[in-house]
Specification:
Nucleoside Triphosphate Pyrophosphohydrolase; 10 helices; 11 strands; 31% helix; disordered N terminus; NUDT22/NUDT9-like; NUDIX_hydrolase_dom; magnesium; metal ion binding; GDP-mannose hydrolase activity
């Protein structure tokens, strides 16, 4: 394990790796949601968050300050994984994790709270290692117009949304009391299927239930966390490509679809030319999938592997 840590790409780190061979299924996940898991505020930094957001909105008028779940921690106990979640928003992410002062905020968080992430927004993302019927994995070339990692190769993904749980409540008014913990747990898993549908334009009926591989951190945005899932698709890569070319609701987020065979995915970290084209969220997904597929020597088989 120490050897793997030393080899880890500095752009990513692993917050949680699933310890079960079959992955973590939705029935093993629960949520605690509370204001105590929100970002701590620094009085002198709050005006900087507002100023940064105004500047970003001038540059990109389409930006929207949506509510997000903030992950404080994840605890695995007696076979159950508990997500400890608060609430945050995209504006706070831009003004903390994505801020030029992010390292200072992490140092301050460690000094004040013993937690480098205490003053950061930490919105929980989701990503999918999407596996086709003919043993390809699906990646997307990100548009040059997106705010993060433009032009790089990513996995399908996005965020679980508080508004999907607290339906009928204005997004800016959602509070912790409006959120059923059971429904939030469902949203964490179902959101990745919706993201695949909207970005790749394939029906949810062709997708398996997601299996959680773990949580990866994007160190280029001060450790922003993303839950990475494994999802099987009953379509072939050619069928997926045809769906993608028709275009879905979020087609503007990517410019091309990329297919990589499973055996090549397991070697991607050694392929420097391709690896450097992956954005950190994709690297996190690939890393967690590779860890799930076998031990450091590649000898432990996993049920994620295709049948032989």
């Amino acid at each position: 394990q120490q050897r793997l840590v030393r080899k880890m790409d500095p752009e990513i780190s692993i917050m949680l790796q699933c310890p079960f061979r079959e992955g973590i299924t939705e029935d093993r996940v629960q949520v605690e949601i509370s204001p105590k898991y929100n970002r701590r505020q620094l009085q002198h930094h709050e005006p900087k968050i507002e100023a940064t957001w105004r500047e970003r909105c001038r540059e990109n008028p389409w930006l929207f300050n949506g509510a997000k779940f903030r992950i404080h921690s994840a605890r695995l106990e007696k076979g159950k994984l508990t997500f400890r979640l608060g609430l945050t928003c995209y504006k706070d992410f831009i003004g903390t994790n994505w801020s030029s002062e992010a390292v200072h905020l992490q140092q301050k968080g460690w000094a004040d709270c013993g937690d480098t992430q205490a003053y950061l927004a930490e919105p929980l993302g989701v990503g999918a290692m999407l596996h086709t019927a003919d043993d390809d994995f699906v990646f997307l070339r990100r548009s040059l117009q997106v705010g993060e990692a433009p032009g790089l190769i990513d996995v399908p993904g996005g965020h679980p949304e508080p508004k999907a749980v607290a339906q009928g409540i204005p997004e800016g008014s959602i509070s912790h009391e409006d959120l059923s913990e059971n429904l939030v747990a469902e949203e964490v898993f179902s959101s990745i299927l919706g993201e695949i549908r909207d970005e790749v334009n394939i029906p949810v009926t062709t997708l398996s239930r997601p299996i959680l591989l773990g949580i990866a951190r994007n160190n280029t945005s001060a450790g922003r966390p993303s839950a990475e899932f494994y999802v099987r698709c009953s379509l072939t890569s050619e069928q997926v490509k045809q769906c993608y070319q028709i275009g879905g609701p979020e087609a503007q987020e990517s410019t091309n679809i990329v297919f990589i065979k499973r055996e090549r995915v397991l070697e991607l970290e050694e392929n420097k030319e391709v690896w450097k084209e992956l954005c950190p969220s994709a690297k996190g997904g690939v890393k967690l999938f590779s860890l799930a597929e076998g031990d450091p020597n590649g000898t432990r088989a996993s049920p994620l592997s295709p049948p032989t």
